[in-house]
Amino acid sequence: MKKRRMRLTKEDIILDFVVYTTLIFLVIITLYPFLNTLAVSFNDALDSSKGGIYLWPRKFTLYNYRSLLNRNQVYHASLISVLRTVLSTLFCTFSTAMVAYALSRKEFVLRKIFSFIYVLTMYIDGGLIPTYFLMRSLKLTNNFWVYVLPGLVTAFNLIVIRTYINGLPESLIESARVDGAGEFTIFTRIVLPLCKPVLATIALFVAVANWNSWFDTFLYNSSNAKLSTLQYELMKVLQTANSMTGSLEQALAQAATGTTNTITPRAVRATMTVIVTVPIAVVYPFLQKYFVHGLTLGGIKE
Amino acid sequence: MNTPVTPDVPVETIPSRKKSFWRTLLHQKALLLMSLPFVIHVIIFKYVPIWGWTLAFQNYWPGKKFFEQAWVGFENFRWLFRDPIFYQVLRNTLAMSIIQLVFGMTSSIILALIINEVRLVFFKKTAQTISYLPHFISWVVAAILGRDALSTDGGIVNEILMKLHIIKEPIMFLGIPKLFWWIIGASYVWKEVGWGAIIYLAAIASVDPNLYEAATIDGAGRLRRIWHVTIPSIQPIIVIILVMNMGFLLSSGFEQQYLLQNGRVIDYARVFTIYELDYGIKMMRYSFATAVGIFRSVVSLVLVFATNYIAKRLGQERLL
User: Fold this and answer.
1) Is the complex ipTM more than 0.95?
2) CATH of the domain at B284
3) Where are the alpha helices (DSSP H) in B70-208?
């Protein structure tokens, strides 16, 4: 192989050129919007509206962050977002693993029927209105728990974890049973620790999905400002921007009533976007370690 | 792929299965306790809404009891099929799903082939890591980034086009109805191209190296090796993914449409969930919106099963 690489043919050079330019182009168009938003968020708002901010702030300021983070609504929404993400991740991962363990036991007489009940949910969908009515009759509208309860155990996560448990050495579980351990003890003491990699994958996916979700807030909790989430706040900022395409004065007036007149809708948008994206960027290295693994695990049953 | 078969050892249940069912269940009460509450949970949250489909056959009036509702049979469906907006929604949903499917898959396959040709490990890893990143941000963030990039007020796309003298004045891209489908397609590709490439990269990694070796000996250059070895080797997975995704033509996302739409482009942006939201939640025509949901669910279900059947016929086991 080494020798062949020594003499680069014309084809090799052209191919390499195409490969590297395409990838560099991809990297630029992926990163630019983020970096530009970051620069705008750290730049003086009125100065930004003159245009010409690309990758670096021109008039550096922390004012945008200070004025946004001082707004009760943003502060409160962050708390709700963090709370729903943490609770969902904990409850969801633990309960999915527990059901997965029970359904992985070959001797469990209800294994087939229970598995079927779960798998069927991947194909049927009650639809928007019936689900909305269900939440209403369960008193889950205007209720924090609508963020956590409905998606506790999902078929996809269940299958991924069950597949992993099936791959564990059965002898470990058997020997614990011989030693007199009950099912729950076996689950918490033996299976859970062995499942760490798959649980990390599921936990990260659940966390990201919860952090990124805005539709449930919009649908069930939009009339209660106390239950608003960061994504929903950001979505409202976006909707305001969409509804007045082009008219800057109107936008400025809007901003002036919101906070002070030295922050513009564009600055609000950029700063909020950064606030909402930072947690994802922080967990991203961990995510990256696990998600490819998770994807191939899921692929087995898909 | 890596699902080792654990020996099936039904220790207690071999003699007289039927009689001992309840006794076995009693014996397994720990397992039952661990799973039953969650099975009840899933029945409540996933199956009870199916019961709600009855709404579509009523002229539902909030506050009345179930049996007091006026039953109208298929009246709501007749309305649905007579509504011109329904056909608009169907067209938009199909058009955007197909654009996403075709361009999403093509771009991911090309990206996988390109990444596979990179020899500098550091560069390869970095490019890959960056390409996955947008998959993990919310559609709200993606919509904001896209909107700002396309804005007439200093948006980067307009600035570049003006610098290159392709256009004289900034174009309000998001205000042009005919462009909306393509903006949705482009933003989808931007967000998902790297993520989508993972599965093809995995497929490429499992191609037998001997094939490349043989092709090289036969005098094939890199391009011809891609064309004659790599692409034919990953063709089965491409077909399967294509077929599988066709099952989701009506149920693919609505978030980006909802978040990027505005009044000017709504005729091209309205997809099923937006339609259901408008009629159901805003206008409170619950029965009609439920009928829309049923149409979507049933057609999707048929599509999913049809495509699964085709996928099986095409020999899915070769892949896994």
Assistant:
1) no
2) 1.10.3720.10
3) 75-82, 84-117, 121-132, 139-150, 156-163, 177-205
